[in-house]
Specification:
Helix content: 25-40%
Largest sheet: 5 strands, mixed
Low-confidence stretches: none
Structural class: alpha/beta
Order of helices and strands: HEHHEEEHEHHEEHH
Oligomer: single chain
Number of strands: 7
Strand content: 15-25%
């Protein structure tokens, strides 16, 4: 197939027709960039096509790579709790990542796999999947989780600290979208003041809840 990993684009793998199940099935065979080689599997988005809220993170982590579902590890559990505390039902949201394969490094063979941030080139390669998800779900609001997701959606000049907790209106993949940026839940887990960081995340999600009405 044209558009192998050297081309750095998922475009040839994205079906022009069909709903989320068709996208998910096609994404399982994506070789649009080299990340597919080391990952266990593609981790596609999860949730209903009717979701009003879409949450976009960076990439799958270790647990997500093993289970094939987004946000099932510690950061995902914290996100579910924060959504609930902000008055949003996690079951009503569509959750996905800017990059669909786990990128990692190992200090030694057989040791724990350590998350490695995707490059702008890898995020761009995976962009057609995110564009297709936005097209099928057509959410009323996107919550951008962290700097990598922000750069993938809004460009390399994005700074989460500058715009977190605000409602932005931008054109994303040709569609006018409303977005609320916040930190990635994994940043809360890493924070020195975890309680303060968690309160900040909930506060940003409360702004998203109000924007949804």
């Amino acid at each position: 197939m044209a558009g192998t990993e050297d081309a750095y684009t998922a475009e040839p793998f994205v079906p022009g027709r069909g709903g989320l199940p068709a996208l998910r099935k096609a994404a399982a065979d994506c070789r649009g960039c080299p990340l597919h080689r080391d990952a266990t599997q593609t981790v596609f988005g999860a949730g209903k096509a009717t979701a009003r809220l879409m949450l976009v993170g960076e990439q799958p982590g270790d647990q997500e790579d093993r289970q094939g579902k987004p946000f099932v590890g510690p950061a995902g559990k914290l996100l579910d709790r924060a959504l609930t505390d902000a008055g949003l039902d996690p079951a009503d949201a569509y959750v996905t990542n800017a990059v669909k394969h786990f990128k990692f490094t190992r200090a030694e063979p057989r040791k724990r796999r350590i998350h490695k941030a995707p490059t702008l080139r890898e995020m761009t390669a995976c962009g057609p999947w995110l564009a297709a998800e936005l097209d099928r779900v057509a959410p009323e609001l996107i919550v951008v989780l962290g700097a990598t997701a922000g750069k993938a959606l809004l460009g390399s000049s994005f700074r989460v600290t500058r715009v977190r907790g605000t409602v932005l209106e931008e054109e994303i993949h040709g569609r006018p979208e409303r977005l609320v940026p916040t930190v990635h839940p994994s940043a809360v887990l890493r924070a020195d003041d975890r309680e303060g960081a968690y309160r900040g995340l909930v506060s940003d999600l409360e702004i998203a809840a109000r924007a949804l009405g």
